[in-house]
């Protein structure tokens, strides 16, 4: 059995892995895992990833969790172009720096913004206190400013003059609040220009393909009671 990727393109890290694999011509079998149906909690998926999260990778008898680990595994195994994860010590360190920062910063605020603005009220039928959403959007704005000032600066891409896995991780995160109607790029011309460069490097068709599902989430019908009960324990933390 060849490479298998367990993904749900509603997940921003899954989108990063999907774009990376497709862009680099890496052959894989897609194993869909529908998060909104709770399929990641199934016993069958737990055999692949006991953490019960996507993305997950299976390569023969080898399994791997965590999107950053998967991206770096693919970049090394398939000897993709150097700019994705540079050999140069300091260039690679810049990519690593962003990947280490984003987990508890941009990732957190983008996920909470999407769920509080759209998923809780529309999909789960739960109203979010206005002050909670306001606090989340303020934190998102702070993280966007850090993305511009600390990482992007006056460069073309997050970690330097060329696109890297850091850019894929960043752009897929930002499309989460965009899908909920947040004007992430509207008053940030530097960030908007960076998005255009990333899309051009990835290819507009692939970019749109990867984001088609999340951009349609606003049109989902409300979840049925069984799904609500299944999802609640794993998403309640996003109201904080």
Automatic annotation (TrEMBL):
Its EC number is 2.5.1.18. GO terms for biological process: glutathione metabolic process. PROSITE patterns: GST_CTER, GST_NTER. It catalyses: RX + glutathione = an S-substituted glutathione + a halide anion + H(+). Its main location: cytoplasm. GO terms for cellular component: cytoplasm. GO terms for molecular function: glutathione transferase activity. Coiled coil: none annotated. Keywords: Cytoplasm, Transferase. Residues 1-82 form the GST N-terminal domain. It is found in: Cytoplasm. InterPro entries: Glutathione-S-Trfase_C-like (IPR010987), Glutathione-S-Trfase_C_sf (IPR036282), Glutathione_S-Trfase (IPR040079), Glutathione_S-Trfase_N (IPR004045), GST_C (IPR004046), GST_C_Theta (IPR040077), GST_N_Theta (IPR040075), GST_Theta (IPR051369). Signal peptide: none annotated. It holds the Pfam family GST_C. It comes from the Eukaryota. Residues 88-222 form the GST C-terminal domain. Homodimer. PANTHER family: GLUTATHIONE S-TRANSFERASE THETA-3, PTHR43917. Belongs to the GST superfamily. Theta family. This is glutathione transferase. The gene is LOC110578389.
């Amino acid at each position: 059995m060849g490479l298998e990727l367990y993904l749900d393109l509603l997940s921003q890290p899954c989108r990063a892995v999907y774009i990376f694999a497709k862009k680099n011509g890496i052959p894989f079998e897609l194993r869909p895992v529908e998060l909104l149906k709770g399929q990641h909690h199934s016993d069958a998926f737990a055999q692949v990833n006991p953490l019960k999260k996507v993305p997950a990778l299976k390569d023969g008898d080898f399994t791997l969790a965590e999107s950053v680990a998967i991206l770096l595994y693919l970049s090394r195994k398939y000897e993709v172009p150097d700019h994705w994860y540079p050999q140069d010590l300091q260039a690679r360190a810049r990519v690593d720096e962003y990947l280490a920062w984003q987990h508890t910063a941009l990732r957190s605020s983008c996920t909470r913004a999407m769920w509080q603005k759209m998923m809780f009220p529309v999909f789960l039928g739960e109203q979010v206190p206005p002050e909670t959403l306001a606090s989340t959007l303020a934190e998102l704005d702070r993280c966007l400013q850090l993305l511009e000032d600390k990482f992007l600066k006056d460069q073309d891409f997050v970690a330097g003059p060329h696109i890297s896995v850091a850019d894929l991780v960043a752009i897929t995160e930002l499309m989460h609040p965009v899908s909920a109607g947040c004007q992430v790029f509207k008053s940030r011309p530097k960030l908007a220009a960076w998005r255009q460069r990333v899309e051009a490097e990835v290819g507009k068709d692939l970019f749109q393909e990867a984001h088609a599902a999340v951009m349609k989430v606003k049109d989902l019908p409300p979840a049925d009671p069984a799904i609500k009960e299944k999802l609640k324990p794993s998403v309640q933390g996003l109201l904080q």
